[in-house]
Design a protein that fits this description.
heterodimer; A: 352 residues; alpha+beta; Thrombin, subunit H; 6-stranded antiparallel β-barrel; 8 helices; 12 strands; 19% strand; disordered C terminus; B: 615 residues; Penicillin-binding protein 2a (Domain 2); Beta-lactamase; 2 domains; 24 helices; 21 strands
Chain lengths: 352, 615
């Protein structure tokens, strides 16, 4: 027996290697959820190890502090801390409710869809590369996490679940250059889109030059992106620069994205699950005069043609007449209307 | 079982030979495979690899602005965001979500995708133009899920919100499959936006620019790494029209709440100063997209808002035709000063009684009075003397019965009946009773408002009919080199005949005629009214239906002696021609104010230049 193995050692080794290769290749095949099996298995295998390491580190450090400091007070403190976090979020949602929704039915719909279902999670790793801003959380598909869920903290929003494994999930931070969040400005209520830059600061796009934006004003989620529920804090404006089509606005996120430890995954709060009337209400609160969301770049709603037609209309109406009115009362007199309009004709007459 | 050493060696040798054979075969197979991948199918694999690694996105070009004769904007392009989709990597399960969120019909989207793979030359096409902030937020937030979608900065068309000149201007929308087969759109690709009607279509090639293209490296997750090449979009050229927005605006205000059309021309050169049609539609809807209910409403609207009544609708010309009949009579020597008709309020002819619009009759009338008072009996008589073919010949000289060939698509020719036409069309001989009906602008004859303005305008300047146009001769030289405006059709009218017609049409407005509403204090306006029946008077009175009411016409020009502007107003079911005359009056008033202002600035300019020259 021994000799059989010794004699065929090379062959066996080769077989093992080939088999290993095949398994490795097969594991690269993507599963239906888009993540590779290999990644899924390895993360499932490694997750307990990572978690154990985290737990050990925490346990050691906390036992040390327990030893040094008063045991009970420390524990109490920790409990109160997390209680406070939870209350802060709850408080925020309640405030939002009061602000936005007056009627009882709306409150019910809103609380049902968002305020209740969140899942606490711990950050166990950061993304591998500097250019991608990612986090790994200790909760995964077994805890009910799905891709596309919002990840938040009491301070502000964090990112979106991008990939889910059994006991871990990957979060794309809002500061990643591929990320985008629908936001509103606090003072004007104007809608824009928050874009990551790959650095700590983010920017807000699609705010037209006519909108007044101030450094220091807060930015909230608009709820228009189908990921983040509306009304969550995002960050504070740090720089406002002029622009032809849109202003250059930099925003510093409220959430400490580089040193996060505990976060909440919003299990229920996906805006697509929200009743349509709430969405439209939110849109109409943002734009009191129009039901639909504004178009990008529509800086001036009028063309010259509109302006001229309105000027003639006003002139005729101010005389209590109309164009084509029978002249029993005298025809309308356009000589008044004409003067301010002359300026618009300017030079460049294209006479025959 | 035991083998001797000899046997053992033999087995070993055989094994080695076998082994060698297998190895050789394996290597041969490998070599063959490598050769196939690296040499035979090299190109295919290289392309596949490139496509995964290199992404090319279109940069949509801005369409040129359309401005009036003074450079004021009628249609312009503005920055907008568009979503483009890569049809090759489109995931069927994503499409439903994307369509729902962007307000697109999922079935239509699926159809467009399959059309795109059949017709399109490029991988990407525009899924939706002019995105709202909410739509951008949604797409941006789902970038990692929707790898097939990219956001690109594009240009979107913006038309006046109050519907100024919508019919003349036309609109842009995505090219259809059938249009892709037209020679006109040979250079266009699936998903391109093209001018669908009006000026936008006529001058599509001039107005549309050329899209640019950006190529960049992407990693396996679709993340952009670096730009490889960038070909900027070439924007389209701006187009200056002969339209004067002041006249256009007042024309439209005059049509508000009514159905009808106004066309204002400069009869000296054919430049169109205003072209309005009512009711209107919102051309911006073609850019942002209709909901299916909006589209159904627009299409089934009985008042037909999409129709450009100025050039696509025909009506009986009514009494506006009378000056042309008068011209025919004068030139034929039949309507001289000695030809007078007694109008008792009607005429018995061929066993039928033809009424004049004035029950009590006009008494004895000459041509001048017949035009001023719009006496039907005079023209019954004159028409009968002339005969249908002579009438038709003069109508054709004035440009009726034929397209004016204005630089807009889908103009209709109207109709001037002749004996020949009737025999060919109806296999029936011409009835002389029909001639006298045509002589007052009723019967089978029909015209468009632009033909009415063109005909009377050309007559008023002494028999010179310039082709009406929206783009001036000078501008056209740049827009379409080689294509020139044709020389005008000239059929000089004798001085003394011209005098009679001017005087007659002056009396219409200023001499107690039917067009008194068009009268202005500061400027002498000439013109001719018309009221054309849609049904017989008896039926109209009995039915009491809005759409059976008479159509009202007025075609006026000014200044009378040397006309510089002619305005045709048609009010569908307008009941009385004086309503039309009042609209024309206001348009001419604005023209007059503008002209005075132009003279003033010209004088000031000349003064300033001469003073500058002296100093």
């Amino acid at each position: 027996m021994q000799s059989l193995i010794t004699r065929n050692l090379n062959g066996i080794l080769l077989a093992i290697l080939v088999l290993g290769q095949i398994v490795a290749i097969a594991s690269q095949v993507r599963t239906s959820s888009g993540t590779s099996r290999f990644r899924y298995w390895s993360s499932t295998l490694l997750q307990p190890v990572q978690a154990a390491v985290q737990t050990t580190v925490r346990a050691v450090s906390s036992s040390w502090s327990r030893y040094v400091w008063l045991v009970d007070v420390r524990e109490e403190n920790q409990r109160l801390d997390s209680e406070a976090s939870r209350l802060r979020i709850e408080n925020h949602f309640l405030r939002q409710k009061l602000l936005r929704f007056q009627s009882r039915t709306d409150v019910d719909a809103y609380s049902q869809s968002i305020a209740s279902r969140t899942l606490a999670a711990r950050v166990i790793a950061r993304g591998p590369s500097r250019s991608t801003q990612e986090l790994v959380l200790d909760v995964g598909s077994r805890d009910g996490v799905r891709t596309g869920l919002a990840v938040i903290t009491p301070d502000g929003i964090v990112g979106k679940v991008q990939a889910v494994h059994g006991r871990a999930s990957m979060v794309l931070l809002i500061s990643d250059s591929e990320a985008g969040v629908g936001v509103v400005l606090e003072r004007s209520g104007e809608s824009g889109v928050l874009r990551g830059t790959g650095y700590a600061e983010c920017r807000v796009d699609y705010i037209g030059p006519q909108v007044s934006v101030q450094v220091g004003e807060a930015v909230y989620t608009s709820g228009l992106d189908g990921v983040f529920p509306g009304g969550l804090p995002v960050g504070r404006v740090t720089v406002v620069g002029p622009g032809v089509e849109m202003q250059a606005i930099a925003v510093n996120p409220f959430a400490p994205l580089d040193r996060l430890q505990d976060v909440l995954v919003v299990i229920e709060g996906d805006h697509e699950a929200l009743p349509e009337e709430i969405l439209t209400r939110m849109q109409s609160t943002d734009q009191p005069d129009s039901g639909s969301s504004p178009r990008v770049g529509r800086v001036m709603t009028e063309t010259d043609a509109d302006r001229i037609k309105q000027a003639y209309r006003r002139t005729v109406e101010s005389q209590g007449r109309s164009v084509g009115l029978l002249s029993g009362t005298g025809p309308p007199d356009f000589s008044d209307a004409a003067d301010p309009l002359r300026a618009s004709r300017g030079g460049g007459r294209d006479s025959p | 079982m035991t083998w001797g050493p000899k046997t053992q060696r033999r087995v070993t040798v055989r094994r080695i030979v076998w082994f060698q054979a297998v190895i050789s075969a394996a290597f041969l197979l490998l070599l063959l495979a490598f050769w196939k991948i690296q040499v035979a199918d090299n190109e295919q694999y290289r392309q596949l690899a490139e496509q995964n690694r290199i992404k090319a996105l279109p940069i949509p070009a801005a369409r040129g602005n359309i401005v009036d004769r003074y450079g004021r904007a009628l249609a312009r392009s503005r920055i907008a965001m568009s979503a483009v989709i890569d049809r090759e990597s489109a995931e069927p399960e994503n499409l439903g979500r994307i369509a729902a969120r962007l307000g697109l019909d999922p079935d239509l989207l699926a159809e467009r995708l399959s059309d795109a793979s059949a017709y399109s030359k490029s991988r990407h096409f525009v899924l939706k133009e002019d995105l709202s902030v909410a739509e951008i937020a949604f797409l941006q937030a789902h970038r990692s899920e929707f790898q097939e979608i990219d956001l690109v900065k594009g240009m979107s068309r913006q038309y006046p919100e109050s519907g100024v000149a919508v019919h003349a201007m036309g609109y842009v929308a995505e090219v259809s499959k059938s249009e892709l087969n037209l020679r006109e759109f040979l250079l266009n690709d699936f998903g391109d936006e093209i001018g669908k009607s009006g000026i936008e279509r006529q001058y599509n090639r001039w107005l549309s620019g050329e899209d640019g293209r950006q190529r960049f490296l992407v990693n396996s997750l679709g993340r952009q790494l670096e730009t490889l090449s960038l070909v900027d979009a070439t924007p389209g050229e701006n187009l200056r029209l002969t339209i004067d927005l002041d006249l256009q605006a007042v024309s439209e205000l005059g049509l508000e709440g009514r159905k009808g059309a106004v066309v204002a021309l400069d009869p000296r050169n054919g430049e169109i100063l205003a072209m309005a049609s009512s009711p209107v539609y919102d051309p911006n809807k073609f850019v942002t997209g209709f909901s299916s209910s909006e589209w159904a409403t627009l299409n089934s609207d009985p008042s037909n808002p999409m129709l450009n009544r100025s050039i696509q609708g025909t009506w009986a010309m009514g009494s506006v035709f009378k000056p042309i009949v008068g011209l025919a009579g004068l030139e034929a020597g039949l309507a001289g000063p000695d030809f007078k008709v007694h109008c008792p309020g009607g005429l018995q002819f061929g066993g039928r009684y033809f009424r004049c619009h004035k029950r009590g009759g006009h008494g004895t009338v000459s041509l001048r009075k017949a035009i001023a008072q719009s006496c039907d009996v005079y023209f019954y008589q004159l028409g009968h003397k002339l005969g249908i073919d002579r009438l038709a010949a003069y109508a054709r000289i004035a440009g009726l019965g034929d397209k004016t060939n204005v630089d807009l698509p889908d103009e209709v020719p109207g109709l001037v009946p002749t004996e020949r036409w009737k025999i060919r069309r109806m296999l029936q001989p011409w009835n002389p009773g029909e001639t006298i009906i045509v002589a007052i602008g009723q019967g089978a004859m029909s015209v468009t408002p632009i033909q009415a303005a063109h005909a009377i305008g050309g007559l008023a300047v002494g028999g010179v009919w310039h082709r009406p146009h929206m783009v001036s001769r000078r501008e056209l030289a740049a827009v379409a080199p080689g294509s020139e405006l044709p020389s005008p059709r000239i059929s000089p009218v004798a001085r003394e005949h011209m005098d009679v017609l001017h005087e007659a049409m002056w009396s219409v407005v200023n001499g107690g005629g039917t067009g008194g509403q068009a009268r202005l204090k500061a400027l002498e306006v000439c013109g001719k009214t018309g009221t054309s029946q849609r049904v017989s008077n008896a039926t109209r009175l009995k039915a009491n239906r809005e759409d059976f009411e008479d159509d009202a016409w007025f075609v006026g020009y000014a200044p009378c002696r040397s006309p510089e502007v002619v305005v045709a107003v048609l009010l569908e079911n307008g009941k009385h021609s004086y309503y039309a005359a009042a609209v024309a009056r206001d348009v001419i008033q604005v023209w007059m104010l503008n002209r005075a202002e132009d003279l003033l600035t010209d004088t000031e300019g000349t003064l300033a230049r001469s003073q500058g020259g002296q100093g």
